[in-house]
Write the structure tokens for this entry.
Amino acid sequence: MGFNQPAAKRGFHYNPVTNELGIFLNGIDVASYSETVGRTYYVNNITGSATANGRSWGTAVAEVSQAITLQIADFAIDAAAGNKYTMSKIIVQGTVTAYGVLTTLPQFCDIIGIGTDPRNHVSGVPRLGPDETAGTDGVIWTSGNGTGCNWYNMQFQAGAGKAAFSTKYIFSSHFENCAFSAAGDTSTAAATGFHLVASGRATAVTMNNCHFGTHSNKDLIRGFNLAGTHWHNCKVTNSHICGSTTGITVAASLANGQGSTFTNNYIGAGVEDCACAVHDLATAGTIVYCGNFLRASNGNILVEDYAGRWIGNIIANAYDAGAGS
């Protein structure tokens, strides 16, 4: 003979602030699935808010810097819980307005731009740094280690005499389909696309299908300016690198370039002539250049071992011989 028994009361809960999912049984929280790792943050400078939590498009923050602040705080919580190396994501919506300059970078985070191709200068490009030609650098990073910071489909903008991306420390990071550009039309050129500053260190940095140049009437002065001490185990491939003075400049101070290559890139003139495609003054731990295509008054000046590390580069439909001066 059966008896009516009260059924167990089951239910679910969702916390939109923490993105936590849970299960209730008879009013007791018996299981909780908190998103403590691998968080995603959303950025939109039209609809976002500086006070939002950034965890959905409906609660997007207004600036990339605000999302980084949130990611850094959550990363510290994850690290304390033993999840130190879990990647997060920051999704950046391209709009009519440029995003502000970055002076802090996250660790173990993908920054992904969604919008039009970053090589152009139109509404919808996810871009960092002001549109004004008298602006500043797009990214200025001088402290911390910048480890595991990966960039996709983003544009970095430089004002007159500035750098699109200027850093002192960056490690184990990747750039894919990014543009390092001058901001707007200007009579004074932006200094550099990518600038590794004096005493700077970079290791295991890879760049693919990127653009170092301009969408205005003046080229960058230098596409790359490697003025630090380390550019170690780095690789730049399939990219367009322009500069009126040089496509790539390497300072004599860079004594740790071993394991690094520039391969299958266009290097040289853009909207202006280029004086020298590659000007490399390093005398130790030198970078290798192989299979690049050059357009410049002078293909290369490599102070150290030019015959050994200048491999199969073509200028004016012929192989370019390495030169020491």
